[in-house]
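Regression check, manganese (II) ion case 365:
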Amino acid sequence: MPLTHRSTLTQFLIEERRRFPGASGDFNALILDVALACKAIARAVALGELASPACPQADPGAAGAINIQGETQTPLDVLSNKVFIRRTEWAGNLAGMASEEMELPYQIPGQYPRGKYLLVFDPLDGSSNIDVNVSVGSIFSVLRASPELEASGRDVCEQDFLQPGSRQVAAGYALYGPTTMLVLTVGDGVNGFTLDPNLGEFMLTHPKLQIPADTHEFAINASNSRFWEAPVKRYVDECLAGKTGPRAKDFNMRWIASMVAEAHRILMRGGVFMYPRDTKDMSKPGRLRLLYEANPIGFLMEQAGGRASTGERPMLGVQPQSLHQRIGLVFGSRHEVERIERYHAEPVHTEMDNPLFTERSLFRV
Ligand code: AHG
Ligand code: MN
Ligand code: MN
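Current build output:
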């Protein structure tokens, strides 16, 4: 398509806003600031090792520290977090922020006005992939501040962020891959924008994304299989059994270890992603975080006709209990996610249900 026919992200947002004549423009300004943060992070990621010896913006002391998740922060985790804050704190659109990399909510500094939105983000998802030059991304979610918070302009607290995913105003991610993309929902479908490196603009390249309801591709970290709960084991076993199994079709498997990249693949061509709750570490009910991983990706999935779930119930209905809460996450093609939910709802199947162990089986004593 010739350059002149594509919308920029700015044009797209302004045209969307026309549907809400009373809108102040704060929301659009916020999304554009987030987009600028993502462009800056894309540049830093693209420099790779070249940025390492003297990355002026990074705080050298902080890199290598352990974050609230108990995970080691890479210099790019720290830099990306700072970029998100600096690009969005000044404009008067935010009441506060929360990030994977900060234990406590971030207060908008006193010299800036405070606004009506809350920004929650994973500044760099998949950061274990940075060293190996595999795609990483940033994930964000926008919530409304309560009227009381907005009116008082007080400091934010954890409680302000504990809203179910269904209350998100917008969600999206940037993917730093061979191209940089921004994928966004404002509650009216999902649209994908590709960064035009010549113009420095996100251009609408993937309007109205729709996830196929059926798929033959699944993604799960199989090294955890001995810790999976029975419904997950059953689902994966049936996929692996392929054409001759109960699903009567062969499946393909993928695992990038950047959830944001898996979400993008699924938005492009369908598939199912699972990082279920398991018995590996009972203190961690899942690997991924509810507020800045599961909810924004869940909102995108639902808006693209897919589904997101804990395995047991819709992700967007979950009432968060804490800022950094972890949760089992299943998302992607609708029929597969529904099947996995069905398996969780059905009574547990054991080996004894296998025909080899039933009435007339060889193994019956
Ligand atoms: P983050 O880099 O923000 O901590 O998140 C990494 C997450 C997610 O992107 C990915 O799906 C998962 O960790 C990978 O986990 P495994 O190392 O268990 O495969
Ligand atoms: Mn992450
Ligand atoms: Mn991260």
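Comparison notes: The radius of gyration is 22 Å. The longest helix spans residues 26-47. No diff flagged against the previous build.
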